[in-house]
Amino acid sequence: MSHFFADDGAKIHVKISGSGSPIVMLHGWTSSHQEWFPFQATLAEKHQVFRWDARGHGGHPLGKHTAPSAERMAKDLRNLLDHYELDQVTAVGHSMGALTLWQYIRDFGTNRLAKLCFIDQSPKLLTDESWEHGIYGHFDHHKAGELMHLLKNDFAEGVLKLTAFGLNERAKEKYLAGASGWERSRAALRAQPPEPLIDCWASLTAADYRDVLGKIDVPTMLVYGEESNFYRIETARYVASQIPNAVLHIYEGTDHSPHQWQRERFSRELMAFIVSGQPDHL
To answer: What is the CA radius of gyration of the chain?
Structure first.
């Protein structure tokens, strides 16, 4: 696994494969570069694929370096592009990765980005009286505070409950049944240092990127799960309506990780989108 050093000295790990035009893939909160492993072989046939472990993620010690806020991870992305001398990049962001990209665009613009793909994310996670397109459609500051308390007391269980007790009934049923997949997730979460991930979550829930969406001036592909744990279809449609000429795909029967449930479709549509700026509908 390769690495580079961010401008504050933090060591950022990156898995690089293939050759051709660059794709940078940004994973979700508490995940790692392994999120993108199922797509690596297909994408690397025609592209050079960069899959990082965001700072504070992937089991890499953070040490005394800056915690993984949205702003810091956007700088890390800029540092990655600089270090590997990348331009005309296709950037793919799932969940936290989408927020990182929106922060990057706010801070640095789109001049080094050729195409964008955002997967199942809202530009503002917390809801209020004037905003219902965040988590669950009803996740306000009070509920955010309750979750933060739980994360500090039992990080793994807090993350699992955030996912389980949302909009996807199957997730709730499997969590309550103690399904093996949930047990594996619990073990993986307990193996990670919680402090930087909690700091990261606080930053993500404080962010609001609604003003960024209209400034995106490169071709954009949106992928949302029809049965997302966190977001209703109305959230997907809102994001699509705000980004000029964005193409929205709803993946039927899938949750917050629609790309994982329909891997062949996602790979095919992303590859076609990179070539033409329009996803393959075949």
So the answer is: 18
Q: Does residue 74 lie within any of the structural domains?
A: yes
Cβ within 8 Å of residue 144, ≥6 positions away: 126, 205
Query: Does 282 map to a domain?
Result: no
Q: Which bin fits 12, alpha (ψ -120 to 50), beta or left (φ > 0)?
A: beta
Q: How far apart are CA 238 and CA 262, in angstroms?
A: 23
Q: What does the pLDDT look like over 83-133, one tens digit per residue?
A: 999 999 999 999 999 999 999 999 999 999 999 999 999 999 999 999 999
CB count within 10 Å of CB 94 equals: 25
Q: How many residues does the chain have?
A: 282
In this prediction the pTM is 0.96
Q: What is the distance between the alpha carbons of residues 63 and 51, in angstroms, rounded to a whole number?
A: 22
**How many angstroms separate the CA atoms of 281 and 135, rounded?**
29
pLDDT tens sequence across 182-205: 999 999 999 999 999 999 999 999
User: What are the beta bridge partners of residue 76?
Assistant: none
Half-sphere exposure of 48 (CA within 13 A, CB side): 13
Task: Judge whether 281 lies within some domain.
Answer: no
Beta-strand runs (E) in the chain: 2-5, 11-17, 21-26, 47-53, 89-94, 113-119, 220-225, 247-251
Range of the domain at 165: 2-276
Domain assignment of residue 231, yes or no? yes
- Residue 66's domain is classified under what CATH number? 3.40.50.1820
**Count of domains observed in the chain:** 1
3-state helix, strand, coil in the chain (%, to 5): 45, 20, 35
